[in-house]
Amino acid sequence: MSLYGVLRSGVSGMNAQSNKLGTVAENIQNSSTTGYKRASTEFSSLILPSSEGNYNSGSVTSRVRYTIADQGPIAYTTSGSDLAISGNGFFVVTDPSGSPYLTRAGNFVKDGRTGNLINAAGFTLMGYKLGANAVDPSLNSLDGVEPVNMASFGMQATGSTLGTFKGNLPFGQPVALATGTATPASAAPPVAGNVLFSAPTVSRGAQVAFSVGGGPDQIFTVTTQKTPAEVATAINAAVTAGTLTGVNASTNATGDLILTSTDPAFSTNVTGSFTSVSKASSLQVYDKVGNPIKIDISLSKVDADTWTVRVFNGSDPAAPLTGTTSMELNFDADGKLMGSGVLGFNIPGGEAFSLDMTGMTQLAGEYNVTGSSNGNAPSAVKDVEFAADGTVYAVYEDGTRVGAYRIPLATVPSPDNLSPRAGNVYETTAASGGYQVGFPEMSGFGSIASGALEGSNVDIGTELTAMIEAQTSYTANSKVFQTGSELLDVLMNLKR
């Protein structure tokens, strides 16, 4: 056995245990570091060729490994921009020079200088911008990602292009509310022929149709919401103008609308019908520069299975909507809508707008409809919200939410072989493999929790135990080196 080999073996052992003590020290000091992954030292033996009569002691080699794939505990915080990944994946971040890295440290805050979201180590969170210029993620690269910065979403107006109007229209509602009959010619004394419309407030789009003495139908269409008395005044004005003939409109003590024949014989029959706008609603939309426009929607019952829908500019009747402003909704025997149910028209100063009514039903229930549309008025961003699927929403002062970014998650085939760098980030190596990019809650990727942070996966008790083991082994190896040195002194003294 070579005494020099004993010395080398002792030094090798002390060096290996020194490396182990180094990882233990690093783990302990980072036991409270967000997203830190524990390091460990693994040993392997190096055996030298020997013979039966002469043994050559070898050495031990050490290799540092990181448990990057192990999930750390998640603790909730009071900051909505703190993000934690539950499951597989890493946040994509960049350093000031733009080089990409992976990290599990999600303690992000808004940088007052640039407006970007950065973590405690100064790395910038990256995401895919949503909207008209949205970029689809590549499965094996980080092309298209950009810093998550909400400053660009403040005070932006978006014109409305799509809306929905859905719910239930009551089944079996009557079509006309006209009552009464004309006084016959043989009546004594003669009374003018009349018909009474027991009508409530008449909404825009309603039609009063009547015929005098069997003549052609005459139709008065209500252009703005009116009471029966106001309708009577408008009909009389139309008679004076010559667009309607043969009647005089009035109201009785109960407010009903009455059409009376003005035929000189006072015996001309008057017949009529009042197509009631049974229900009316409105929808808020926006033009290109963010001006709010109210779209009035009236629904008239035509027959048992048909309604007529009309839309009007409720904000400015002098600037009417253009395009297709009315359509019929036809329902089958089961109350389901037949046909497309989509009404297309143009918003003054805005975009072409599609109102989707495919969610309408006609069932034996109450009138219950809801409407919504896209677009928004200019407003400042007051808050940011993060969804579990990685979508970042800009929350405006008016309460609206707009999807601004979607945060990707990236991983590699062998996460434990990533190369750690300062700032609790990792970069890929040949052993780890290249990037695999996806979104949270997709197959193979975890979800994102807002207002939470992933803690270190270091266990202090385990590290202290490892420290005692390394200290004992280091001392034992130093005794081997010391014994070898003493034997060399004995050998050197033989010559004396």
Automatic annotation (TrEMBL):
Gene3D superfamilies reported in the protein's UniProt record: Flagellar hook protein FlgE
Where is it located?
Bacterial flagellum basal body
Q: Which organism is it from?
A: Microvirga splendida
The Flagellar basal-body/hook protein C-terminal domain, residue ranges: 450-494
Residue ranges constituting the Flagellar basal body rod protein N-terminal domain according to the UniProt record:
7-37
Name of the molecule in the record: Flagellar hook protein FlgE
Name the job this protein performs.
A flexible structure which links the flagellar filament to the drive apparatus in the basal body.
Its primary localisation, in coarse terms, equals other
